[in-house]
Design brief:
This protein is of the alpha+beta class and 404 residues long. It has helices spanning 79-85, 93-99, 119-128, 146-152, 181-195, 208-221, 227-241, 291-306, 382-397; strands at 3-6, 16-22, 29-30, 35-40, 45-49, 54-58, 65-67, 71-76, 198-206, 247-250, 253-256, 262-264, 266-269, 276-279, 282-283, 320-322, 345-349, 353-359, 362-376. The N and C termini lie far apart (64 Å).
């Protein structure tokens, strides 16, 4: 009996995966343990191995995104057996469907008009009102796949994250989206904004003492500790004061977490020279770490994120997020970071700058850090959100409190 090869669940939070590349051709004879395709989740790319030897029929093409447990290929013991169950082979689909009870065989009615299309292509066509009989398929044997339907109706559609473009303008170039990190980023950002009640607040914290403490640590240890490590430590201390900031809305319950697992937004190069990508590795159990430990763990995660060495578990399970633009954005920049679902809070420190500020009636030059914070108003009301931001502000301004 042929074996269904389904989209695996590679991480606890994974709901779908994108096939970025098939490493074998349709109909190839493959060996158990052989890498046969690359799958990209919203965060990490993986090479998947064949679960057994045999001949493979590819059902979902590169560039398509499908839910977990969707059958993406079928593996038969021999090429002859594979041919016998192929719904596209032979002249008599009705006889073929009746003779084979394999779940991949579609009803004969599907072939009445000889339109051959993937299930995802049919779904998108129905949503967009695309006539499949007028679409030319680019899949195996002329099968219509997702990209064919999308190309058949340029412009925005209901639920689309893209809008139509003016084709009369001169273009510098185009960045392909399907099957790339940009597609996942677009879906996550739209889902976050559409399904949560986001509110942002902004303030400045005087981190002059923090900078001095950092210099003392550098002199003693011989290595610099990142300001971001202090910020993460301050976030953890503020959560101890206001635990609701470390939570998520799950169905009709608010889940308040014990462990502080900080998602750290990391910028990555994109597929082209114009594009960029984003990954959020997770530093776990920050509540039990000192600043130096946070710094070491954070730098290790960032390095491996940029080298493509993270595991699936290292990109899931965050309870709060930090997205820093320090050193990249102009000094004093304030932004509205988008929530990293399902986290209820994201903190966005930016580039500090030296400013004249009043200290006990006297003007003094102090290093001021702009901080933005977005929270989910379904989970936090303004009062606990304000208490959390105030606690974070005080820990940043008084680093001795978080160095003990």
């Amino acid at each position: 009996m042929p074996t269904d090869f389904t989209m695996p669940k590679l991480a606890m939070a994974m709901n779908e995966g994108t096939i970025t590349e098939w490493l074998v051709a349709d109909g190839d004879v493959i060996e158990k343990g052989q890498a046969i395709l690359t799958v990209e989740t919203e965060k990490v790319a993986y090479d998947l191995e064949a679960p057994e030897s045999g001949a493979i029929r590819i059902l979902v093409m590169a560039g398509e995104t499908v839910p977990v447990d969707t059958c993406i290929a079928v593996i038969a013991a021999t090429a002859d057996e594979l041919q016998a169950i192929d719904p596209e082979a032979g002249p008599d689909p009705a006889t073929r469907a009746a003779a084979n009870e394999h779940p991949l065989i579609a009803p004969a009615a599907e072939y009445a008009d000889r339109v051959r299309a993937s299930p995802l292509a049919r779904k998108i066509a129905a949503q967009r009102g695309v006539d499949l009989t007028a679409v030319t398929g680019s899949g195996p044997g002329g099968r219509i796949v997702k990209r064919d339907v999308v190309d058949a109706q340029p412009g925005a559609a209901a639920g689309s994250v893209w809008t139509a473009v003016d084709t009369s303008l001169t273009e510098l170039g185009r960045i392909p989206v399907p099957g790339t990190p940009r597609a996942g980023i677009a879906r996550r950002m739209m889902a976050s904004l559409q399904s949560t009640a986001q509110l942002s607040s902004f303030w400045e914290s005087d981190i002059s003492e923090l900078i001095r403490a950092r210099e003392v640590m550098r002199e003693r240890a011989g290595a610099a500790v990142s300001v971001n490590a202090f910020i993460i430590r301050a976030m953890s201390a503020a959560i101890a004061d206001v635990p609701i900031a470390n939570s998520a809305l799950a169905d009709d319950e608010i889940v308040v977490y014990e462990s502080v697992n900080v998602g750290i937004a990391v910028a990555l190069p994109g597929k082209t020279k114009w594009d960029s990508a984003l990954l959020v590795p997770v530093l776990r159990n920050v509540q039990s770490m000192a600043v130096a430990e946070i710094d070491a763990g954070m730098k290790d995660l960032v390095r491996r994120a940029r080298e493509g060495l993270l595991t699936a578990d290292e990109t899931t399970g965050s309870t709060i997020t930090m997205s820093s633009t320090a050193g990249i954005a102009p000094p004093g920049t304030r932004a509205t970071p988008v929530l990293n679902m399902p986290n209820a809070v994201i903190v966005g420190p930016s580039t500090p700058q030296d400013k004249l500020v009043p200290i006990k009636g006297e003007a003094a030059v102090r290093t001021m850090l702009p901080v933005s914070m977005t929270f989910d108003h379904r989970v936090l009301d303004g009062e606990p959100a304000a208490r959390f931001s105030r606690a974070l502000h005080e820990y940043l301004e008084n680093p001795a409190l978080i160095l003990v």
